[in-house]
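ARCHIVE RECORD
Type: protein–small molecule complex
Small molecule: phosphoric acid mono(formamide)ester
Source of inputs: curated submission
Record status: active
Notes field left blank by submitter.
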Amino acid sequence: MTPATVVQHKDFLSVLDFEAAEFERCVGLAAQVKRVRALGREAPMAEALSGRHVGLLFDKPSLRTRTTFEIAVRELGGEVVALQADAALGRREPVADVARNLERWLHAVVVRTFSQRLLVALAAAAHCLHVVNALTDEEHPCQAIADILTLHEHLGRLRGRTIAYVGDGNNVATSLAHAAAMVGLHLHVASPAGYQLPDRVVQQAAAVARCGARLRLFTDPVAAVAGADAVYTDTWTSMGQEHEAEVRRHVFAPYQVNEELMSHAGPGALFMHCLPAHRGEEVTEAVFESKGSIVFDQAENRLHGQKALLLMLLNTMPDCELRMVDL
Ligand code: CP
Ligand code: NVA
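STRUCTURE (tokenized, with ligand):
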């Protein structure tokens, strides 16, 4: 086991569960596992999860998160168990009972659900089960690992760079705000009134900010993207908010990321999106397909990020040379 990759935390429910240095090590480890993936079964971590079972419990749809966790566990030599969300998330029996069942069989469980509070309750009830947040209404921390790795690959050193997030102050924006603060990135968030990042998140980001990282909220998207190195957006209507879709389409229309808005960003600014994207809504086809669009790099890096996270949480990183990245 390489001490540099060991974390003391049982769970990853939020980026804030990691110290800034741990989060950076996770991104560095993701870069490392990406470099050695081509070695296949010869990769140093190919048996790291041997004999371990990881449950996947998804109460909302998923393409990227589910697929990448499944491949990550398999490529680390572990076994995946698909759990039935309607049988497991507090509808048949209390979530604390579910947790105390799961920990008798599994080493970790990856959960996508609505309520962060339910996830916290599940993690608290299971004393030796690692619980990973695969997205709740409040946070999407695994996405943030991939996002920071992707930004590092395209921009190099991140400290002092500026990213603009345009759109809903939602789960993706929250985890991005936590992660950006930890790695020294300035983050501008432009949202309509009533849809801004919660005050709690602004305070949390300020509390973990390093190297002068600043989070600034805007209502004007043009002001937010001015000079930015990357512009990030997400759906206007998250899973579970479908009944608000029509109102949201109207409220968010001025926040569309289009070529005009991108022209106010820095020269060669990157375009980012966690996906799935809705062309003609939060982003135009032209921006989505533009040269600066790195959305599929983000998607690819979900795989490497999930592997790094599992290696760190389960403390199963084999003893091998680690080259960390300088964010
Ligand atoms: N970005 C993301 O989490 O994608 P999925 O909803 O497909 O998992
Ligand atoms: N904010 C979106 C992210 C999907 C990956 C949602 O919660 O639906």
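CURATOR ANNOTATION: The two ends are 23 Å apart (CA to CA).
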